[in-house]
Fold this sequence. Notes:
The protein has 399 residues and is an alpha/beta fold. It has a single domain, classed as 3-Layer(aba) Sandwich (Rossmann fold). Helix content is 34%, strand content 20%.
Amino acid sequence: MMRARQLAAACGAALALSGCSIAAVDYGKIRHAEYVADQRCDAQPGAVVDGAALPHFFVTSRLPDCRASEIELLHHRGDHVRYGRFDAPRDVVVAKKKRFLPPLAFQAAPDWWRALQAETDRKQGRVLLYVHGYRESFATTSKDAAQIARMTGFDGPIIEYSWPSQGKLFSYVVDETNMYHDVRNFRDFLKTLAEQGWVREIVIVSHSLGARLVIPAVAYVDRASSNADSSNISNIILASPDFDRETFERDIEEEVLSARRVANDRRITIYASRADRALAASRAIHGYPRLGSPYCFNPFEAAELKARGLPERCYPAPRAGLTVIDTTDVSRGSTGHSNILLSAPACRDFIDVVAGKRTRPERVATPWTHVFRLEPDPALTKAEHDAICRRTAEAGDDR
């Protein structure tokens, strides 16, 4: 009971920012078996999927609902991992109600892998894997994945890995629970992807809580993969990572940024913002600073920075292969938690990082050799930010 009261108090302090929940998620009023009874929930081998209409790939552990004309992926855990294709969401009418859903179709795993290989071979051997964070539905993550594809012009297939986030403001703890439950699913998928001889380079983009799936999974693949160097996992981008900063610093060089990995071109880029209100809430809940927020946990370090006339911002320690981009001064949105999708300076930097570029003239050096900050352009209008970031003008999208 004391633990529950303490957690409730921590949640209360953070509700206005990101929210959390100490209640169990409801099973619902429908048997989960009824959602998947229709054969469309389990694709038959050889079933034809229109790759032009559904250009992007997904892997999900969400429970699907195949009862209506439009298949929907729910916030419940699925009975097994499913594979399929999707496109950006659009407005559709389901049971006389307007819904914002992505068109999708499931594929049998062997067919999915063959389609992915064909698309990868047709391009440059590069694959971009997007892993979302907290408070997401399949519709919102598919919208973000499609935006990343448009914005970067990535020359290869886009894969979205979707775990059962609740998509709700006050379900942070439930999301954490489901994310950790999905660790095995994600690491097994990443290992299989990394072991494909036709995959020359994997660019991993994670947002928020997704970093806690990505970093341990990469370490697992480094240890377990038959590809001893894991050299095709080369470009790891952590946007607003909700990851314990001290844990990251302690563990990262053992495998993920070991000298051998960095020598094989492994690198990590972190996008961090002191204006990130969602990560401020996460810090309040967890008690320790998050990797995506340059908050100074040590007050003496903050005082020393202030005495030197520097901003009171603290970052992970420097190491080969690690770059931090501070987006504090270009932060946009109600929470400052999605700058690589909202802010033109951050979007431009992100585009170049995805393309494999290591430097940009727009980056401003800091006293830390591995940290750069981005400066705002006051002349940019909201429409110009949206155009540069290749956003769609959907209502309620300012996250």
